[in-house]
Amino acid sequence: MKLSKTIKKSAIRLQLRAATKGEALEELVDLLCSAYRLKHRKEILEAILQREKKQSTGVGMGLAVPHAKTPVVRKLYVAFASHRNGIDFDSTDGEKACLFFILVSPRDVSGPHIKALASISRLVKHEEFRKVLLSCPDEKSFFDLVKKAEAKYL
Amino acid sequence: MTIRDYMERDFLSVSPHAPLREVARLFFETGESLIPVTESDGTLVGVIDIDDFLLIFLPEYIDLIRNIDFVHDFGALEKSSFSIEEKLFVAEDLMREDVPFLDENDSVMKAAAALHKLDLSRMPVVNANRLVGMISKNDVCRALYEMKGEQ
């Protein structure tokens, strides 16, 4: 799945303000809801928190991918954010998370959710990509970087 | 003749929290293409289809290509490690919730018709929402064959 075609420009925030995991999840859900004009913020946040309880989506290497399936959305929505100093996110390697992809999709469809998670995994496992993404100055650069990485790794 | 008499009772399932490694182990050890997902009390919550599991590995462009022979090299994708996927996916993320199922008191003919119509190799069998077995095309064919033989 091409993230460059899935993520909306307004769903990118290059400097999260959050200081804790809880605040980061709230801020990411707000970003997702405002960018795609999603109602049901409460239900989306609850679904994300429930999924975090099962297993932290802080997968290490400075990356977190909070995600959930919920009946209150009709299709897949993805947002991206970064944090200059990083946030403790119960990551598997104990490192702070500074790159965040958040996604939600409907409960009755599994394909797009899996494809989006697989695409994110394939891109961010490359250290070079993570580094440039973290120093990304604006939204346009974000899309340029992602498109370049998609051509190379997907 | 009901499904209860022919279904497989010795089935394996995973919890929605199960990590990808456990889901993979179950697929490979059982050789099945459909794995049921249950809560700790046995309530059926979904199934994981091997086709969805395969999506983790496949590039998006595969669906756009008519002839796979045109792809001579899968490049970076083939050499890519599995480091993040193993930490990112749990069973629930791969699961289909809109799962067709049968009741253990349903007839074998109903099971045969459902498996045929839905083009499934096997289906979960429940009793009051709890998974009590799995029934396959092989099971229903055996049941129908035995039944016809007795007539």
Task: Write out key terms for the chains shown.
heterodimer; A: 154 residues; alpha/beta; six-stranded mixed sheet; 6 strands; 45% helix; B: 151 residues; alpha+beta; CBS-domain; three-stranded mixed sheet; two-stranded antiparallel sheet; 7 helices; 5 strands; 35% helix
How does this structure look, described?
The complex is a heterodimer of chains A (154) and B (151). With 154 residues, chain A is α/β, with parallel strands linked by helices. Chain A contains 6 helices and 6 strands, in the order H-E-H-H-E-E-E-E-E-H-H-H. In chain A, strand 2 (58-60) and strand 3 form a beta hairpin. The longest helix of chain A has 15 residues, at 21-35. The termini of chain A are close together. The mean pLDDT of chain A is 94. Chain B is an alpha+beta fold. Chain B has one domain (3-146): Roll (CBS-domain). Chain B is globular and about 60 Å long. The two termini of chain B are 13 Å apart. The chains are: A alpha/beta (154), B alpha+beta (151). Chain A binds chain B through residues 1-2, 51, 54-55, 57, 59-61, 63, 65, 67, 69, 92, 107-108, 110-111, 113-115, 117-122, 124-125, 152-154, and chain B through 16-17, 19, 49, 52, 55-57, 59-60, 76-77, 80-81, 83-85, 87-90, 92-98.
